[in-house]
């Protein structure tokens, strides 16, 4: 398999983010599309345990696969549910809980009160949903052919926990241990020949680099049931993703985009940037 690919760099339109959201963590849609087309066939089941705004699930819908997701933020789940073919396949939960997140999905209660714009109303359910989707309550997840996901990022200098919404204290070591646990839960959801593909980048912030991609490859390889197969570098067609290389600039440790906006990823800015024109897809095989 070729380990370098170039994909369209079309970013999602920032205007399609809801007002309450000030951080755009969405993947470039071409990345999950490429993963799904490469590693699955039509009709296969795909899970994103860190579903975010549903880029992977929407791509699965478009490509005729069955997309499922877990996401800890109820507002993001409400947003996704309004945009996918099978809303009940997306649940509020903790990826580290794996299968039980589908069983104990709290949205049975929350959907009465939360929608993606923060108003109080029930979610839109498509008329052509499966019976399973109309029933409410637990969703019995299938054995997944592919996990396609981008986990929450942490840099080695940060001290808050990404798996808890950056709201409690954390450390890089604890984050990597949690990543191992989350992907053990993923392995439990995969079919025997299933594959997990993890989109991640090493992250440059000013003069330093956090080797997140390589550290996560190691951490996930430690998960029972998953073995690292390869990394695939995905480059983007226009050669950049909107960030200037400030290594020799006058901006100290700030990252400034082409429009002059500060893209430094830090708690004080609430924004992030990879600082690179590529990402990694880490590929893991499900092993018994
Ligand atoms: C990098 S974003 C994924 C973005 C997604 N690929 C998209 O295009 O919208 C990571 C997501 O993981 C969610 N998350 C963080 N900790 C989690 C946890 N313990 N369980 C499930 N989701 C979690 C975050 O809320 C965030 O939406």
TrEMBL record:
InterPro entries in the record: DNA_methylase_N4/N6, RM_Methyltransferase, SAM-dependent_MTases_sf
Matches recorded under SUPFAM superfamilies: S-adenosyl-L-methionine-dependent methyltransferases (SSF53335)
MF annotations from Gene Ontology: DNA binding; N-methyltransferase activity; site-specific DNA-methyltransferase (cytosine-N4-specific) activity
Skewed-composition ranges (Basic and acidic residues): 118-127
All copies of domain DNA methylase N-4/N-6, residue ranges: 30-79
Sorted UniProt keywords: Methyltransferase, Restriction system, S-adenosyl-L-methionine, Transferase
CDD domains: AdoMet_MTases
Reaction catalysed by this enzyme: a 2'-deoxycytidine in DNA + S-adenosyl-L-methionine = an N(4)-methyl-2'-deoxycytidine in DNA + S-adenosyl-L-homocysteine + H(+)
Residues covered by region (Disordered): 101-142
EC number in record: 2.1.1.113
A single GO BP: DNA restriction-modification system
Family named by the database record: Belongs to the N(4)/N(6)-methyltransferase family.
Protein name per Swiss-Prot or TrEMBL: Type II methyltransferase
UniProt source species: Halopenitus persicus
């Amino acid at each position: 398999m070729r380990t370098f690919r170039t994909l369209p760099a079309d970013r999602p339109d920032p205007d399609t983010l809801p007002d309450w959201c000030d951080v755009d963590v969405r993947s470039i849609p071409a990345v999950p599309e490429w993963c799904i087309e490469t590693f699955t066939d039509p009709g296969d089941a795909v899970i994103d345990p860190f579903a975010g705004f549903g880029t992977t699930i929407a791509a699965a819908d478009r490509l005729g696969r069955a997309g499922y997701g877990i996401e800890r933020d109820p507002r993001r789940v409400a947003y996704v549910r309004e945009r996918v073919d099978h809303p009940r396949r997306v649940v509020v939960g903790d990826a580290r809980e794996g299968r039980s997140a589908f069983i104990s999905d709290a949205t049975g209660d929350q959907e009465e009160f939360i929608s993606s714009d923060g108003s109080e109303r029930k979610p839109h359910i498509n008329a052509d949903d499966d019976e399973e989707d109309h029933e409410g309550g637990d969703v019995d997840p299938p054995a997944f052919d592919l996990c396609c996901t981008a986990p929450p990022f942490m840099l080695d200098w940060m001290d808050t926990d990404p798996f808890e919404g950056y709201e409690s204290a954390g450390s890089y070591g604890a984050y990597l241990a949690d990543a191992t646990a989350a992907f053990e839960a993923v392995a439990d959801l995969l079919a025997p020949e299933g594959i997990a593909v993890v989109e991640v980048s090493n992250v440059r912030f000013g003069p330093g680099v956090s080797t997140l991609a390589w550290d996560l490859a190691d951490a996930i390889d430690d998960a029972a049931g998953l073995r690292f197969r390869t990394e695939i570098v995905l480059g983007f067609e226009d050669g950049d993703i909107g960030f200037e290389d400030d290594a020799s600039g006058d901006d100290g440790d700030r990252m400034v985009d082409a429009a002059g906006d500060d893209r430094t990823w830090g708690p004080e800015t609430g924004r992030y940037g990879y600082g690179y024109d590529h990402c990694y897809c880490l590929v893991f095989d499900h092993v018994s």
